[in-house]
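Chain and backbone:
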Amino acid sequence: MIESGTVRSAITTSGTTAFCRPALLRSAGRWLEGAREPGAARLGREGATKGGGSGQQRGGRQRARMLPWLLFRTARRAVLGSVETELCDLKSIKENCHNFCTATSKAVTYKELKNLLNSKNIMLIDVRETWEILEYGKIPGSVNIPLNEVSEALQMNPRDFKEKYHEVKPSKSDSLVFSCLAGRRSKKALDTAISLGFHRAQHYAGGWKEWETYEFSENKKGN
């Protein structure tokens, strides 16, 4: 027979009460009942043989000796499960942080776009509809590829791309910047490009509206 203090000691071996769960206590209770049962059965049953009673007692003592090990194993599983959960949570936080930082770094400002255009090391793709560009204007040096054509255009062979858009098709290692009216469509185009392997792609979140405002202001100052 095992003392209740032994059960408490086995349960708190890990130094925390986090493992005193109902399932663990029920398991301990079943093992204790198994350990006590042989004596009660020997006294209460008629016709039980001496050899049989002795065997039951031995079984009860074995159960009692195994109880701390059983509780330890259950507690160990609980510890490992908790650690695994924490690691998964940390991984999720890290991925969210990475996605946030990546999304932030993929947006260029007006001044950054001006510098990139002056360096002539990027392709600026305006994803507005053609009629919008004809009516409102465009950023100098940009190529018009409407949003609904972006995916197909980036997967074209270079000859077809050149024939349709009159520009050399960018490779996946080239720097791309997408723009639109106010940043919404250019962000969708950016997501499409990244999914196709154009990991150096960015977008101009201010769009034509911001560009026109800054350009008007700078031209006014120049005059």
Observations:
- The radius of gyration is 36 Å.
- Strands lie at 107-108, 122-126, 142-144, 175-179, 201-204.
- Residues 50-105 form the longest helix (56 residues).
